[in-house]
Amino acid sequence: MFTTYDNLNRRLSARYSNATTGPGVTWTWDALGRQLTETSYGAH
Length: 44
Known about the structure:
The chain is mostly beta strands. The chain is built from no helices and four strands.
């Protein structure tokens, strides 16, 4: 599992095969720290 965070310690992605591609989930956040999107890729 490869997980990336922004400089405010909000999780940006969790990928299974490597840090940038492959199955996993990505998130986006607004300036107030509210989650805007959650997108899953590949197998669940």
